[in-house]
Sequence to fold (673 residues):
Amino acid sequence: MSFAYLYFALVGLKLEGKTKTFIIILYYSQSKFTVILCGTDMGEIRMNKMKITVIGAGTMGAGIAQRASQSGFAVSLVDVKDEFLKKGFEGIEKTLKKGIELGKVTEEQSKSIIENIKGTTELKEGAADTNLVIEAIFEDMEVKKKLFTELDELCDDSVIFASNTSSLSITELAKATKREDKFGGLHFFYPAAINRLVEVIAGEKTSSDTVDKLMDISQALGKTPILAKDAPGFAVNRFFVPWLNEACRMLEDNTANIPTIDKGAKDAFGIGMGPFELMNATGIPIAYHSQESLHKGLGEFYKPSERLKVQFELNETWDMTGEINDSALGTVKRRFYGVVFGVACQLAQEKVASKEDTDRGATIGLRWAQGPFALMNEVGIQEAYDMVNNIAEISNGTFKVPDLLKEQAESKKPWDLKTVRVTKENKTAIITMDRPEALNALNSKVLSDLRDIIKQIQKDEEITTVIITGSGKAFVAGADIKEMMEKSPIEAREFTYLGQAVLKELEDLNKPVIAAVNGVALGGGCELALACDIILASEKARLGFPEVGLGIHPGFGGTQRLPRLVGRAKAKELIFTADILDAKEAERIGLVNRVVAPDKLLEEARGIANKISRQAPIAIRLAKSAINKGCEMDLDTGLAYEVESVSMAFSTKDSKEGMSAFTKRRKPEFEGK
Ligand code: CAA
Fold:
């Protein structure tokens, strides 16, 4: 048989409004011409090739456009007038200039970030071929609705719409379109290009697929997304705005003067600016309108303080002069804590956001040293209850202590704030290292949460495989350096034992574990991956051992497992130089099994898990143990071990089933017996 290629081309065709990519091959064989048209993987548009349209070139819109461009998305920035666009681009240039000064971006990168944003005053042009529209215009329900109705006509049905509103209902805005299921909130925080927090808001009709996509896109934007229900103030403004209001109430009832209140807030929340200084910087009208909007949605307790209203009407900034009164600081702190704790418990009770996400909102979005729930644990749960009760007592019946807090205080236990999550999908457990604010760094709490989950999975007979991945942009950035710094040598030794023990339990788990390395896996993070059976790495993954640069060396098994996997010489080179490898290089030296596109990582991991789940579970368990143990033995001992192990496998009911199914040409049905 002889054949010859005549033509080969990669073409993009527009089908049902979507651009699909095909390979066309025309060849001649056995006296016949054949044309082959095959779809490529690129039909599913890769995240970093997506186009994002941002509407509104104000401070927030311009910041979002910059972030999107910086993350590799194609970006259109739309506003009604050229002068607004010009101002938006000036803002972006200013931020990037600061970035260059700080060494965060190069001149060249800055230039290409700006060039990649196409400014236009034509909505149709900006919305053409887009995948996601983010609306960031001023807060007016009717104007926003009109815009979304127009966009609904212009955009393909598959396009997701998101609003950056901080105060309007997502459910209500979605009604202006025929795609309520593809409509959600993406609430960015100032400065949008830099602040890592984004609230993903699900309206009543937002589909779970849309929520997942908005979470994924937020991560691709380098953000830490938190999930919030469509309720007034969502998660963060629900407690942050009343925090500002409480400052004004304290001024009104003469608890203290402005400098004392600001000092109390700074001490209590570990922040650089108190509420009055902050309101002067960001604008008193925003504080007033946000409070008024909570008041309308949530009732009397949220009413703007008279003092705030007066200041808003005067259109003047707060007078920051005066002496700090140290004796009033304690009362000020208790009042702030009381309001923040009470509101945080209320919103968690209403399931607006989880306790963990509420805390994340405070630490990442507001840069508080700790979130409300961690702070309650620090001051003591009974003490926290008393502070909230005090607010309820002075609220004239407008605020009640949430039952969630009452029950917790009765239990006399601190809040259990999880740093590792686990979900079950059919027979697979997906473990997510969930401390994105610190790139999932391993501290004692993370290790203990991970240990609890490993124990739980070990006992769960329904689970046959495990996938472990990281939340946000990192897999795990190593052991927690900040926690380690505080440790004495004896404590550091205990911590190292703990890390080693937990990773050994993971390695010895009675089911296969697949590491889906989605971002950096450094030091302890790489050691976590090494304790897994199979390592898949996203193209964005970076792996290495920076410990010697910190004056220590790998301690969670890195000096032992790495040479066993990649050989002594490579292991020494990696550990001694602290070089960080990209995913391809890690694959080349055998550190990872294979490299996968970022948006396909979990899909690939699930695919492997499903394949494993179809095999005989006891055989898999015995094989895992034989490989792991065998690697520590000489060949003869290993072979002897294998004989015993495979004999055990022969004695299972599953072995009878597997072989009988083979001879009868049917699929085996394994029972794990
Ligand atoms: N421990 C504690 N906090 C960490 C951390 C770690 N290992 N890695 C990152 N973080 C925190 C940062 O301090 C930062 O917190 P703030 O926002 O409060 O400042 C947050 O995570 C985000 O990090 P960056 O701003 O640094 O993010 P980046 O994208 O600019 O840089 C990075 C990412 C290159 C991974 C950088 O964070 C980094 O170098 N991290 C440290 C990596 C490391 O040295 N790991 C080894 C630890 S030692 C070890 O693991 C010993 C062992 O064998 C057990």
About this structure: Residues 438-439, 441, 477-482, 499, 520, 522-524, 527, 546-547, 550, 554-556, 558 surround acetoacetyl-coenzyme A (CB under 6 Å). Residues 374 and 617 are 41 Å apart (CA to CA).
